[in-house]
Amino acid sequence: MTTKTHFQAVNAFDGTLLPGDFPVHGKSDVDQAAKAAAGVARFFRQTSDHSRAELLRCIAAQLELQQDAIVERAHLETALPHARLNGELARTTHQLHLFAEVVIAGHWHQVIMDTPDSQRQPQPKPDIRRQQVALGPVAVFGASNFPLAFSTAGGDTASALAAGCPVIVKGHTAHPGTSAMVAECIHRALEEKNLPHEIFTLLQGVERELGQSLVSHPAIKAVGFTGSVAGGRALFNLAQQRPEPIPFYGELGAINPTFLLPAALESNPELAQQFVQSMTLGCGQFCTKPGVVFVLNSPQSQAFIETAQTLIRRQPSVTLLTQGIADSYRQYTTQRAADPSLSVCTTPEAATDIAPMLFVTSAQQWQQNPQWEEEIFGPQSMIVVCDSTKEMLTLAQSLTGSLTATLHAAEADFPLAAQLLSRLEELAGRIVFNGWPTGVEVGYAMVHGGPYPASTQSASTSVGAEAIHRWLRPVAYQSLPDALLPEALQSDNPLALVRQVDGHFD
Amino acid sequence: MTTKTHFQAVNAFDGTLLPGDFPVHGKSDVDQAAKAAAGVARFFRQTSDHSRAELLRCIAAQLELQQDAIVERAHLETALPHARLNGELARTTHQLHLFAEVVIAGHWHQVIMDTPDSQRQPQPKPDIRRQQVALGPVAVFGASNFPLAFSTAGGDTASALAAGCPVIVKGHTAHPGTSAMVAECIHRALEEKNLPHEIFTLLQGVERELGQSLVSHPAIKAVGFTGSVAGGRALFNLAQQRPEPIPFYGELGAINPTFLLPAALESNPELAQQFVQSMTLGCGQFCTKPGVVFVLNSPQSQAFIETAQTLIRRQPSVTLLTQGIADSYRQYTTQRAADPSLSVCTTPEAATDIAPMLFVTSAQQWQQNPQWEEEIFGPQSMIVVCDSTKEMLTLAQSLTGSLTATLHAAEADFPLAAQLLSRLEELAGRIVFNGWPTGVEVGYAMVHGGPYPASTQSASTSVGAEAIHRWLRPVAYQSLPDALLPEALQSDNPLALVRQVDGHFD
């Protein structure tokens, strides 16, 4: 038996092989890339903020130059429509530009200073200044559902490069051609900016061992991952079992509970349409898809359910990202469709495509079937009808961690909304009010994370400016002269940073 | 065989039993305490900043009221002198007051806001506001070497209460009486402030199972630990293997490398005395003890070594915290003393006490004996003589993570110092210049942590104001009306917080 040295991409529409051979990288490639990344880590960490911002902007420019070719290839590899992919590319370049701004603005240095006091009793107070430093080489795992924004040059890569960490991407097997084209853009940008190419490496392959050796390599100092609970948890475990455990930032799964309160249901006739649109967006392959909706039993909620069912029946069948995702969707939804405690509504399934589905059940049944809280990737969701607000609050109490929690409430609902909010902020990274969770804004305040399994590190976000902090750790410098201090900490503040001094922002 | 229901403390000086029976808590006690803590977690998280600051100050006042009794008991249980323990109590109350200030100043909320733009194309920009929320019940493990400042009402407890997290302390078996007295102070403070007593629980016991069930309990949401690499790593592993992994903030071990550069050795004749003082402080039982000193071979460094050896010979033998620590010290130092590649210098050992020790070796031998990098608790250290700056830099490159790294340099040393600094900031949480690492300032800028094994989470600190962030995670609120927003995020900024808006601090 010989090991395959190359593999081809699969056309997501028809399962045929697409042109292009991609090397199957193995353990020795990981070793080489990780050591090379470690070799340039100190240099890259110490580059100027300006230089890293320029690199990020140049990557964005390179992506725009190749936009049509990248989008075309991604379309074939993922079955996602051109408009969506063009939007995702714009989101990816926006992310790169945001992190360029973040680097330059410099709040990421998080400078905190304690001024000395030689007269203090019983001991003199030392001069202590703290800043953030880059961790070193970072491993990033591309995600299947966002071939651009959460993959090769996605948020993890952009934030890690911004922090000054070399990046090794393990490309997702579902879109190797897209990954290779994006990696080329990054390498062209490194070359244009006269930076060593070892700062970025794309590794591809079809065996699990590739990701495992990457996470286990001693030169890797942190991991960014977006994917399934099973795959992510296995890699998380590996990262924690290393002789030197490393931070593993995994965004794994979420059911994104949504609560539609009575007055909101009465005042907003669009809710059913908005819901079906949100749960079928990107063919239901968004990690923020509303996977369960809680309503109180009432004529309004019955009308909401009926409208949603009617809309689901009108949905076209769709092609999912990969055959594996479609198989898994079929398996789970078939199980649920056969369950007498669930009322199911769906659309006719076409040849190789899958059918959107909506399930309806009671609060009592929901409580007896904890397995329904598992995320199913694809365009299905569940409506749970509660008999009382008490029942709704009880159900909210038992939910596990999620990326988002959504609340629709009109003013008459506010007392119940306030009670629910106290619980929702315990279980989600983001709370959406009178809106829908799909569509994650890439800004300064975004939190894309949450209690496990939404994230393996609930104190972090994988989207937005604060994502840079995943790749940094603080260092305190005690009594160093200006001549030896990093620029961010020097007394005359040459980087013009906002700095916290003796507990106050100056 | 019956399970012991109570245990007694051991007099650290003579091994006799001290008066006082302490309950041996088990799994059911953990379950009860954790559920009780979970039951008050939401209430405590939502108390006002003012109320939690008052609680912290009241705990400090209660400790001061009981100061003499606590110090006397701690003295018998730890063999630490009264002066040191009075200083440690002052440090403990200072910590409580610092966190009261931190809570009130409010930077810990870390408010970040993105203002909405309904006109933005292609999609409107939503209103997103982010703050930090408390994680829930926290488990804290008391440390043997700081019966007050790193134990029952130490930095972990103070920062967790400041964050709004209920605390369950697993008291260290070496000082159960001290722990019980301090816990009583905390309960009196809770009572005085009309707060539920379930916010704080002290569990005691002699079996490992107690700590294990605490870390494994589903209601526990984070852990603070200060102790050995072996014990800490075992608990870290448990925390990561839970169905829901939780953050485990362990401060495990450090050798705290110190570099004495040539011009500094020439200009500062006090170095040998300062070194011996630092390595024997607290009988060498400080986690920041300088465990290895690197010098370049020169007449000055030879003089430094000889003076240090002379001073070591004059040191009295000392009583360590526990019989276990003393046994371990003897075992390791005996091994090293028998090693022909190490030159040893010590002081006569008295009956039950142990003798301070200083080892000297070459860079070459150091490289061939990686086991010497393991921390040995107690008053011993090692001087490593390098033949060249290149050799010194190579040794620095191979060191593992440490709490601190220290550099003594005069101006002529600055070029070498700068090279070393680039490496030291990769391996330590704090860099000390022309000083000694023992004595950790409790301020705003302190970092007490560092790459593994110094800390299991190098992005955190276990001392200083920023330690509060270990018990918090961010939540983003999208499009919530002021009526439903937490105070920290309301439009008119009722808490008068420093907030970051659209990337700028307002």
| Rg from alpha-carbon coordinates of chain A | 24 Å
Main sheet attributes: strand count, strand direction, barrel closure of chain A: 7 strands, mixed
Number of domains of chain A: 2
Number of strands of chain A: 19
What is the helix tally of chain A? 15
Mean pLDDT of chain A: 96
| Percent of residues in β-strands of chain A | 15-25%
Under CATH, the topology of the largest domain in chain A can be stated as Aldehyde Dehydrogenase, Chain A, domain 1
Relevant CATH superfamily of the largest domain in chain A: Aldehyde Dehydrogenase, Chain A, domain 1
Distance between the termini of chain A: 67 Å
Helix/strand/pairing category of chain A: alpha/beta
- Architecture (CATH level 2) name of the largest domain in chain A: 3-Layer(aba) Sandwich
Regarding quaternary structure, what we see is homodimer
Range of helix content of chain A: 25-40%
Are there runs of chain A of 5+ residues with pLDDT below 50, and where?
A: none
CATH C-level class of the largest domain in chain A is: Alpha Beta
Strands of the widest sheet of chain A, in order across it, are: 12-13-14-11-10-15-16
- What general form of chain A does the structure show? globular
**Largest interface, and how many residues on either side?**
A-B, 84 and 84 residues
